[in-house]
Amino acid sequence: MNIYGPPPRMLEKVERRHKEKYCVHIS
Predict the structure, then answer these.
(1) What are the residue boundaries of the structural domains of the chain, listed by start?
(2) DSSP string of 1-27?
(3) What CA–CA distance (Å, rounded) separates 3 from 21?
(4) To the nearest whole percent, how much of the chain has pLDDT over 70?
């Protein structure tokens, strides 16, 4: 299941900023 909404292209930018937030969701 994809937790990320936007495409992988935007993930590159969002991944760095929301990396901490996503880590919490994944945990």
Answers:
(1) 1-27
(2) -----S-HHHHHHHHHHSHHHHHHHH-
(3) 11
(4) 0
Q: How confident is the model at residue 5 (pLDDT cuts 50, 70, 90)?
A: low
Task: Report the length, in residues, of the chain.
Answer: 27
At a CB cut-off of 8 Å and minimum separation 6, what does 9 contact? none
What is d(CA 27, CA 9) in angstroms, rounded to the nearest whole number? 23
Q: Is the pTM of this model over 0.85?
A: no
Q: CA-to-CA distance for 21 and 18, rounded, in angstroms?
A: 5
Rounded (5°) CA angle 15-21-23: 80
